[in-house]
Structures are given as structure tokens and as C-alpha cells.
Amino acid sequence: QVQLVESGGGLVQAGGSLRLSCAASGSIFSINAMGWYCQAPGKQRELVARITSGGSTNYADSVKGRFTISRDNAKNTVYLQMNSLKPEDTAVYYCNAQIVVRDGMSWNQRDYWGQGTQVAVSS
Predict the structure, then answer these.
(1) Residues near 109 by Cβ (< 8 Å), separated by ≥ 6?
(2) Neighbours of 56 (CB within 10 A)
(3) Residue 117: which H helix or E strand, with range?
(4) I need a labelling partner for 121 at 20 to 30 A (CA). Which of 28, 62, 88, 113 fits?
(5) 56-100 pLDDT tens trace
(6) Pick from 69, 70, 68, 66: which is nearest to 89 by CA?
(7) DSSP 8-state code for residue 45
(8) How far apart are the first and last CA of the chain?
């Protein structure tokens, strides 16, 4: 069993900062890409930021220059530093990881999601 546990969400004023963390645990062989997605009420879930196992990153245009994704491979953890927060950043943020796990007699990559953490930015 593999679990992704997120932490760090909350309520902050516009211009403030939050740091989200997501730790993967369980029967993990390796972790490839990890990322953060957000879903605002009435909207589809969308990519915020993504980081590969080698450290390459990509960001949604709306967060470039304000958010930074990083990971600690030794801890199987991904972080999202969110600065200069805006009311439009308000959403539930989900961690995603592509994790290689034992699958019978072989190893396969599977997609895992965290439970989500609420970020609310007041104006």
C-alpha cells in the first residue's frame, strides 16, 4: 500500500505565503514525477507545478515567479512554496506522484493522489 499525506494548507491574506508538503510512504520501489494540482469550486483539477526525479520543473503560467516546487528524494517528499498569494489561488491542492510499485512478479508505475489540502487566500 502506498499513501500520500499532505500538510501545510490554511487561510492566509493576499500577499502572504504558505508551504505545502506531501510525503509518500509504503511499499515504494522508486518515484518518478511528483506534482501539485489544484481544484477550485466548479472548476476542473489543473496542474500547478511538476518536478521530475531529476529535478526538472514546469509550472502553470499563473504561478510562475511566485510558486516553487522542490523535492527531497531521501524523504519521498515534495514541497510547494507559495509566495505572493492571490485570492484566485484559493482551491484544494492535491499532491500527485508516479510511483513504481511491486505488481505481482513485476514492477509497474502507478498514479497516486493525496487527500487534498485547502488553501484559502483572503483579499
Answers:
(1) 32, 98, 99, 100, 101
(2) 9
(3) strand 117-122
(4) 113
(5) 999 999 999 999 999 999 999 999 999 999 999 999 999 999 999
(6) 66
(7) -
(8) 41
Q: What burial class does residue 110 get, using C-beta atoms within 10 Å of its C-beta: 0-12 exposed, 13-18 middle, 19+ buried?
A: exposed
Residue where the block lists cell 515504494: 28
Give the burial class of 98: count Cβ atoms within 10 A of its Cβ; 0-12 exposed, 13-18 middle, 19 or more buried. Answer: middle
Q: How far is CA 77 from CA 15, 16, 18, 97, in A?
A: 26, 23, 16, 10
pLDDT tier for residue 120 given thresholds of 50, 70 and 90: very high
Grid coordinates given for 59 = 509550472
Q: Which three cell numbers stand for residue 20?
A: 505545502
